[in-house]
Structures are given as C-alpha cells and as structure tokens.
Specification:
Elements lengths: L15 H21 L7 H14 L5 E2 L21 E3 L5 E4 L4 H13 L4 H23 L4 H13 L1 H7 L5 H16 L5 H17 L7 H8 L3 H26 L19 H15 L19 H17 L19 H18 L5 H24 L4 H18 L5 E4 L3 H7 L3 E4 L8 H10 L4 E6 H11 L3 E7 L2 E6 L7
Parallel strand pairs: 4-5, 4-6
Antiparallel strand pairs: 1-3, 2-3, 6-8, 7-8
Length: 501
C-alpha cells in the first residue's frame, strides 16, 4: 500500500537578525530591479507580449490590420501590414499574436495594479522574488543551512542571465517561477492533496508561459509517485489552464495543439546537439561561476540521492536536453535563457556538495568559512561578468523604441504611412500609423502601394535601425531624405512621387 512520505524534520526558526537581513535582501533586490527594468513594447518579443496583453484586456484575440481603404490585406504581400510579434490570417484582415498567452495574462493583471507603463516591471519583480523564495524553500527542504540557502538565492539573483531576463518584458523569469512552484508543490504532494492541486495549477501556468514546460509532467510524476489520489488533484488543478490553452489555440490558430510559432519543431534537430552542448558547457560555468561544476559530483552526496533531488535533476536534464536540440540555443550567451529554469537546480546541486565539504573541514567554524569563501568568489565573479557583458545596459536599448515612437507621434502627421521592420511591433502598440513591412511587401507591387497611399493623401516615411537601413532603402528605391535620428533609428521621408524597386 502506498503510504504518505514522512514529513522532513522541522528546521529551527531563523534568528531575528537573520530574518531581518533576509527580508532586507528581498526588498533591496526588488528596488534594484525596479530601478533598471524596462517595461516597454520594443522589439519582436516585448512588443508581441504587450500587443497580445492589450488585445486580451480588450476582450479580443485578434488585432486589426491597418491598410489602405478599399484594398485587400494580402494585395501587396501577405505580410506587408504585419507588425513583428504577429502572424496574419490568409483569409481575413486579422492579426494573431505569435507568442503564448502566459506572459500577456500576467502583464494584463499587473496593469490593473500599476498601469501598462510599469506592468512588466511588476511581473519581473514578482517572478524574481518568487523564484528566490522558492529556491530558499527548496534549499531548506534539502537540508541546506540558512546561510547556504541564502547564498544559493544570491547566486541566482546575481547571475547575468537572471538579470537579463528580469529587466525587460520576457517570459524566461516567469517560466522559472512557475516551474519551481510546480516542483516545490509536488515535492510536498505526499503530505496533503492541496499541494497537488497547486502543482497542477502552477504547471498549467508554466505551460501557458512556455509550451515546452509540459515536460514538467515527468518530474512531477516522479515526485508524487503512482498513487492516483495524488494525480487526480494534480489534473484538476491544471484543468482550467489546459481548457483555456486549448480554446485559445483553437480560436486563434485553428487547432487546440497549434501555436503561433507555426512548425516550431523544424527548428529542433539532433545534429545541433554537439554545438549547443559545447555552448552550454562554455557558458553555464561562466554565468553561475565555476563553482557550479561541483554539481556533477552531487550523486556522491547522500542528501542528493533523495527522491526530491531526483525529481529536480530530471527536470534540469529534460530541459537542457530539449534545448540542446534547438537551433537558436547555441547562438549567443543570452539564448541560455531557455534553460534558465534549470539554473536553480544546478545551484542546489552545487551547494549541497559545497556544504558537505565545508562540514568536513576540521577547523573551528570550517563550514562557515567555506560559505564565506564560496559567496565571495561567486559574487565577485558574477559582478565582473555582469560588467563585461554590460547587462545593465540592455534596458537602455529598449527605451529607444519608446523614444522613437514618441518622436514620431510628436513630429509626423497621424495619417502617415511608415515603412519599417524592427520598430513595427512597437509602432503598432504606441502609435496610430499605418505600418508597412519593407521586408515582407511584394516589391513588384510597390508602385501600386504608393499610388494607394497617395490616393489617401498619406505622407510616406521610413523608420529604420542601423542594421536594416541600407537594405531597406535599396529595396524601396526612390528618393529619401533623412529628417531625424533617435537613438540608433533614423527617420526618412519619401520625396519622389514614386519609387522604383
């Protein structure tokens, strides 16, 4: 008969001074993130999330295609009027969000508290603090001392990848939060069925944020065992989220199992694994400091051979294994954000080993000295890496999108037509302009498109980032005059009556 697992021995309460320092650390980190976070609809990802959130707030699943009156939405190319972060329907002038609804739903909820201008900041602070709290709880459950548990949180929070994902509208920090919530709840699921319900609800949220988090079902099954009395509340907890996900996908993409990514599995291939795994091996010890390498010896430590650790390890292995097959994983360091939810597990494994080594030191206070040395090395390493990678400068680049949109609204007529690509999602969110994707339009139909714009007396401009400017102007032809520069975007006005492709 499958009996409930015994509860872990209760841990002594924290001294008042330690509790004060812990709370101060959480508050200080929240203030730090709020200071540097950018809650802006900028490039493809962030504008896609914000545009989707606004549609959901308006009770709509689709955005309207802005196009010249009296013309079909696909007349000048199917994607001619499609901002970044959207896909366009072939049969109707409707824009469907590309990205999953998880983050947009969080942005919508946060906007009710802090407004749209600060919604992403609220979500990111919530995700980062929640992940830190859950890592602390898991560390204590795995018998790490309060000092080592706090050190694990500090290493996660100072990681450049955590900061990168927590300072702009991205889904990675939320994916980490809800996957940790699901795992932490499942590890307590043998104590009471309510934890199983929470694990199911958290899994549903994790999948809404990122569909590949469906992999959580395997480590959750390991954590709960094969007792149907635990799996039934797990399923019931996840059912509302699953129903919403299937309904949304059916309404927007035509099938309960379809997504806005299209044939995303074509980007996964076994041949990519050697390069991507080499990339992971290069960057994980850099991002988490070389201390994380001792995690490989965790199976030698008795504390790491418990069911709890097996479930956590299975999750990390599945996630890293899946994204080792993904085309983009090995492009640059910040693409390790796809495996960010595995980082807390790697930190826990390393710190279980390091605490055991500290306990084996025969000197007085040897374990405490080991903790101080580990934290000093790890935090100094990460502070230097954050400076080298210029992580705190990334949000500044996001603000340029808002600055460009504000300049355009202040200086260009509201009926203007804007040729663009990189700013198209941001301009769709912030401005009323008719947006034309220079990279998606049918070049052969450009004269007819310009004639349609002239018939509506629309002045024509182009807003181009540095990397796209030359190719865009060559593709558009005609005579363009630069009228402004805002950050790394240039604004051009079409002078000629027509343009030759």
């Amino acid at each position: 008969m499958d009996t409930a697992a015994p509860r872990p021995a209760p841990t002594p309460g924290l001294p008042r001074a330690a509790l004060f320092l812990l709370v101060a650390g959480f508050i200080g980190y929240a203030v730090f993130l709020a200071r540097f976070s950018a809650s802006i609809a900028a490039g493809s990802d962030s504008s896609g999330y914000f545009n989707s959130a606004r549609l959901l707030g308006e009770g709509r699943f689709f955005g309207a295609v802005r196009m010249p009156a009296g013309h079909r939405h696909d007349e000048f190319g199917l994607g001619a009027f499609m901002p970044l972060g959207f896909i366009v329907h072939e049969d109707a002038p409707l824009l469907a969000p590309t990205y999953p609804t998880g983050l947009p739903l969080h942005l919508l909820a946060a906007s009710a508290v802090a407004g749209w201008r600060h919604a992403a900041t609220v979500v990111n602070v919530f995700a980062a603090l929640g992940s830190g709290f859950l890592l602390w709880s898991l560390a204590r459950r795995l018998n790490l001392s309060p000092g080592w548990a706090a050190g694990a949180v500090a290493l996660l929070w100072s990681c450049p990848l955590t900061l990168f994902a927590s300072m702009q509208p991205m889904s990675d920090a939320l994916a980490m939060l809800w996957s940790l919530t699901a795992l932490a709840a499942a590890l307590r699921g043998r104590e009471h069925w309510r934890w199983c319900v929470l694990a199911g609800a958290a899994t549903a949220l994790a999948v809404l944020v990122r569909p590949t988090n469906a992999l959580l079902v395997l480590p959750l099954a390991l954590a709960l065992g094969w007792n149907w009395r635990r799996h039934l509340p797990l399923v019931l907890g996840g059912l509302p989220g699953a129903v919403f996900l299937c309904y949304y996908n059916w309404r927007v993409y035509g099938s309960p199992l379809a997504t806005g990514y299209g044939d995303v599995w074509s980007a996964f291939a076994a041949r990519l694994a050697p390069h991507n795994l080499t990339h992971f091996v290069r960057w994980i010890p850099d991002l988490l400091s070389p201390l994380v390498c001792v995690a490989l010896t965790a199976p030698l430590v008795p504390a790491a051979r418990r069911r709890e650790f097996a479930a956590l390890g299975l999750w990390a292995g599945l996630l890293i294994g899946l994204y080792a097959l993904y085309y983009h994983s090995g492009e640059t360091w910040w693409y390790l954000r796809f495996i960010l939810p595995a980082f807390p597990v790697l930190i826990l494994a390393a710190f279980v080993v390091l605490q055991r080594l500290g306990q084996a030191i025969p000197w007085p206070h040897g374990n405490r000295l080991m903790l101080v040395a580990v934290l000093a090395f790890g935090l100094v390493w990460q502070v230097r890496l954050n400076r080298r990678l210029e992580v705190l400068n990334f949000p500044t680049g996001e603000t340029c999108y808002l600055a460009t949109a504000n300049w355009a609204q202040q200086h260009l007529p509201p009926e203007s037509a804007i040729f663009c690509m990189q700013v198209s999602g941001a301009f769709y969110y912030y401005t009323p302009f008719l947006i034309i994707r220079w990279d998606q339009m049918a070049v052969a139909r450009l004269p007819e498109l310009l004639a349609a714009l002239r018939a509506e007396k629309r002045p024509v401009y182009a807003v181009l980032h540095d990397f796209e400017s030359r190719e865009a102007r060559e593709r558009l032809g005609g005579s363009w005059r630069q009228i402004a520069t805002v950050c790394n975007a240039t604004i051009w006005q079409l002078e000629a009556a027509s343009a030759a492709p």
